[in-house]
Amino acid sequence: MRQKRAAPTMPTGALCLTTAACLRARCEARILRTRVQRTGAETCGEVIPADADRCDGKAVCATLDALADAWERGDAEAYGRQFTEDGTYTTYIGSHYEGRADITASHRALFKGFLKDSKLAARYLDMRFLTKDVAVLTSCGADYTGDKPGADELSKVTTFAP
Question: Does 22 fall in a domain?
């Protein structure tokens, strides 16, 4: 049976981006669950655009696979290596990390605590190449322990620019 996680508590002074009622206050974030109209593709390769270089599309997918693999192992260093030195990462609750070192350090703490022994589930909505060297991938997903959630349970929409 899939285990549900309690919503994390936001620290004093944090901006809760999840509801208008939680601004700059100690609050427990209640993430608004919205249904993604389209459940997306099961594999990243299915959303590589027909006019894109397949090798470039596969490289984007390999990066996402490496992120999920590192997450499942709780390996913050491997997770962080998937980001550029100056990369940024904003979570679904609004936490913002700047740079590979910050992303790695934050996930080291998360993998030892709140996200310990969790895995990622994802479906892929869209991939676009803005230029030959810049891709944007949109997915929906969730972290979980226990049974993998179904496609209709993945409500966190994420955009990657690997």
Answer: no
